[in-house]
Amino acid sequence: MSADRVIEGITQDDVLHIIPIILLAAASDMQTVEHCLTNGADDYLVRPYSPTLLKAQIREFQEIRKRRAKERPDFVYGKFADRIAEKGWFGQKTGRG
Predict the structure, then answer these.
(1) Is 44 helix (H, G, I), strand (E, B) or coil?
(2) pTM recorded for the entire structure
(3) What phi and psi, each to the nearest 5 degrees, are found at residue 43?
(4) Are 86 and 22 in contact (CB under 8 A)?
(5) Rounded CA separation 22/44 (Å)
(6) Are 29 and 36 a contacting pair, CB within 8 Å?
(7) If DSSP codes are grouped into helix, strand and coil, which group holds residue 87?
(8) Which helix (H) or strand (E) covers residue 43, if one does?
(9) Bigger pLDDT: 41 or 66?
(10) Residue 6 phi/psi, 5° resolution?
(11) Which end of the chain is more exposed for a tag (fewer CB within 10 A), N or C?
């Protein structure tokens, strides 16, 4: 599945739109990075990436999610897994290895 489809699927979904999008990819040309960030990705890490940096960014996005949850206490985060399963994103390969 292309990065564009994942970004679009998350950002345009009424449940999933608050999920931070961190792309881990081999493409490092600035045009691709700018395209993904402009279209809704929160971050873009080029492989090989730093596990330490990835962990730090995940922690930061978790804090953002906690703040958003306080803003929307009625929101049920359990809906995420159901919605992702509906979209068929579990177990899909990108075709790149």
Answers:
(1) strand
(2) 0.65
(3) -155, 165
(4) no
(5) 6
(6) no
(7) helix
(8) strand 43-46
(9) 41
(10) -65, -50
(11) C
